[in-house]
Amino acid sequence: MPKLKLTYFDFHGGRGEPARLALSIAGIPFEDDRVPGPDWPRRKPSTPFGSLPVLEVDGAIVTQSNGINRYVGKLADLYPSDPWQAALCDEAMEAVEDITSEVSATFSLPEDQKKAQRQALADGPITFFLTRLQQRLEAGGGQYFAGGRLSVADLKVFVWIRHLRSGKLDYIPADLPDRVAAKLVAHFERVKNHPGMKAYYAKHGIAE
Ligand SMILES: N[C@@H](CCC(=O)N[C@@H](CS)C(=O)NCC(=O)O)C(=O)O
Prior knowledge:
- The protein is an alpha+beta fold.
- It has 2 domains: 4-77, Glutaredoxin, CATH 3.40.30; 83-194, Glutathione S-transferase Yfyf (Class Pi), Chain A, domain 2, CATH 1.20.1050.10.
- It has 9 helices and 4 strands, in the order βαβαββααααααα.
- The chain has helices at residues 17-25, 40-43, 65-75, 83-104, 111-139, 152-165, 176-180, 182-192, 195-203, and strands at residues 4-9, 31-35, 54-57, 60-63.
- The chain has a 4-stranded mixed beta sheet, with helices on one face.
- α1 crosses α6 and α4 runs antiparallel to α5.
- The longest helix is centred in the middle third of the chain and has 29 residues, at 111-139.
- The protein is globular and about 45 Å long.
- The structure holds glutathione.
- Glutathione is lined by residues 14-15, 44, 50-53, 63-65.
């Protein structure tokens, strides 16, 4: 196994969390480099694209969260070997990326604009992506997004649903997933109850 160091911000979510989860579930040792917010301006220029996550593999680095998810998914046996199932896994991850980018664009807005844009996102694109991801889950059998078992796609969707339901996104109702995509919430619970996930969150002292 290569020597791994995963650098991401110091919170339990976001684009770096699925790779942390995948490595932890598989019991693959890695350096969990968590960047405190105040350190970021100093470290940002040394990253290839001015953003995180960054994965270091035997001293070489690679960026882009879904590429990192695929790479660690292969190491962790959480990425389908079948090309078609791999494409379905990628589809779910890229869909989460699409909607994440829309929400991320609201973070630095003035409060009144943030409120208006997030309310519009909740009623429009977020509801759309929730219902369409649910449809794709159901089309694949309803349990997991690819290959009939846990993959990095399930981890990425899990992290997104967890964020939405956390209530930490002002102006986006925390009960939105439960109201519009109950089967996606059931998937969230399924992933949360995976023994590897329970062990990870117990280790980090997180209730949910
Ligand atoms: N396409 C990139 C986007 C990376 C990205 O925007 N990361 C955010 C955190 S989730 C970041 O580094 N923000 C701080 C900044 O841009 O200064 C990926 O998928 O990894």
